[in-house]
């Protein structure tokens, strides 16, 4: 099938071309994001492949449909950027990659915890400048500390296993209890108990109307003084202004994030020559006890291979008229109120 691939980076092209070798789809790569302005590029493409920051809203879908597009292939799990109802109305199928790197994300989360605790991000810069002072680099043993995991699906469970390896105690909160976490010795509790007793809190639930700004001033007030807060899930789980206040008072001892509520304006691009206009984000970068990565937790070779293989297999399924297990159907997903999974 002829596929217009939007938001292409060199690594997308490398992995998609390698995976496409036996499949023989005709892939055409475009660097810009898909939007109403760039949708004109899709004339003659029955399939369009997009990523997390492409805009697949109703007006864009109408332009696509008028130019013959019948399939949107998401190379990610989240689909909050796609108007599924509009797609269904226009007869456009939408497929996605539901899971591709739970180990990659959990391992990156552990990396943030270790770096923040032992101040490795600061030590790296100091040593390069000939500063071998240990002042300000004091950490704590992870052994016997308590890690609170919110959302114990694929990634949360793997993080639990990793942290048990360090001798941590596990507290967890999820609407659906995972017996595997209890086998590890973890204990399910309500959120106030998790907030009050965790030395480290890590977020692994999806962004939904219920979890939007789950970490706000009220939640922070219930936490231990000096708590380490980690978010590798979705930016809007955290109210950034409230967390900034918590960092200023010392209530939050350290913050590690791979995601940010307004990240679509920043992440995945080299903006090093530009003036960043987002003052909330810029304030975060000034704290010595804040470590930010730009949505790279998923970014492993295994994940890119899985994303490419599944995306192309999804396209082949639709091309050959087979049922695609990864197709998004409007009513259940919308009723489930999942904004990002
Ligand atoms: P998953 O579906 O396997 O697990 C999510 C868990 O969250 C489930 O157990 C679910 O019951 C639970 N949950 C749902 N609503 C909840 C609520 N209100 N409170 C508490 N728990 C709730 O998903 P996963 O594969 O483990 O991914 C977790 C999240 O990681 C995703 O939602 C996504 O936002 C994020 N993610 C980030 C990256 C990255 O690169 N940073 C990559 C992939 C996924």
What is the topology, as strand order, of the major beta sheet?
Answer: 8-7-6-9-10-11-12
Distance linking N and C termini: 27 Å
Order of helices and strands: EHEEHEHEHHEHEHEHEHEHEHEHH
**In percent, how much strand structure appears in the residues?**
5-15%
Could you say what the CATH architecture of the largest domain is?
A: 3-Layer(aba) Sandwich
**Rg calc:** 21 Å
What top-tier CATH class of the largest domain fits best? Alpha Beta
- Kindly give the count of domains: 2
Can you count the helices? 13
Largest sheet: 7 strands, parallel
CATH topology of the largest domain: Rossmann fold
Q: Average the pLDDT over all residues and give the rounded result.
A: 95
CATH superfamily of the largest domain, by name, is NAD(P)-binding Rossmann-like Domain
User: Helix proportion of residues, in percent?
Assistant: 25-40%
Q: How many individual β-strands?
A: 12
- Low-confidence sequence ranges: 332-341
The small molecules bound here are: nicotinamide-adenine-dinucleotide
* Secondary structure category: alpha/beta
- Give the overall shape, derived from the CA principal axes: globular
Based on the model shown, name its key terms:
341 residues, alpha/beta, Rossmann fold, seven-stranded parallel beta sheet, five-stranded parallel beta sheet, 13 helices, 12 strands, 36% helix, 14% strand, disordered C terminus, binds nicotinamide-adenine-dinucleotide
